Amino acid sequence: MRAETALFMRDHVLSLVSHDLRSPLNAIHSWAYVLERKLDPADAAAQRALAGIRSGVDQQVQLLEQAVDTTRAETKALALRREGFTVRAALERASDDIRRALGAARNVTIAIDSRLEGQSCDGDSERLTEALWVMLAFAIEASAPGETVKLASSIDGGFWRTEVAYTMSFAALRDAELPHAFEPFARKQAQQPREAGRIAWVLALAQRVALAHGGTFEQSAAGDGEPSSLVLRVPTAAV
């Protein structure tokens, strides 16, 4: 699961790089045309400089298309193996696994609040269980020892909604003496301010799985010592 998390995080970062670099490159390309109309066509030095600017932009765009976009193709088009499964089983499988792998060692308790029993969902049970695992793992990592991570899950209006609530602790994310599931740079990035609608990189797997199912994934904004939540919402039937 750590390897899967790292794979999706890598592709998520590449996606952000591809998106965020294209805007300034487009601006440089547009200003090059403005300069072309202003410069003297007979000025050889100025024309060489302009050609260099355009060549640099073209090289960067080619790099984005060939290296960045191609590399992230594996998770961009996420294939699902849909089947009916009991959602309670997925909840318990994810929580039991992360409790043994990380929760007990960090003295963080997982409390499940759900009346779901035999209700089912038509989706990729493995991928959705992975998404729940990542959500719980992050919440445990971001919780101080002795805290409780709360998982609430329900089905309403044709959607399966699961919320993981915890209290954010930057000290817990930074503490090298505590056991961790995620890399130091991922935990460091998770403490930084995020633009509206963006998530911590390490949660990319949960977001991608939600989108592949036609659902949504949200991470609330929270500072150090403040309540925070992660919400996964997917339709119970294929869309």
UniProtKB/TrEMBL annotation:
The record's InterPro entries line, in alphabetical order, gives: HATPase_C_sf, His_kinase_dom, HisK_dim/P_dom, HisK_dim/P_sf
Specify the enzyme's EC class, one word. transferase
Q: Looking at the keywords, is Phosphoprotein present?
A: yes
Q: Which SUPFAM superfamilies match?
A: ATPase domain of HSP90 chaperone/DNA topoisomerase II/histidine kinase (SSF55874), Homodimeric domain of signal transducing histidine kinase (SSF47384)
Keywords, comma-separated and alphabetical: Kinase, Phosphoprotein, Transferase
Question: Is Kinase tagged as a keyword?
Answer: yes
From the UniProt record, which GO molecular function terms apply? phosphorelay sensor kinase activity
* Reactions this protein catalyses: ATP + protein L-histidine = ADP + protein N-phospho-L-histidine
Histidine kinase domain span: 16-238
Top-level lineage group: Bacteria
Taking the record's annotation, the residue ranges forming a coiled coil are none
The UniProt record lists the EC number as: 2.7.13.3
Q: What is this protein called?
A: histidine kinase
**Organism encoding this protein:** Trinickia fusca
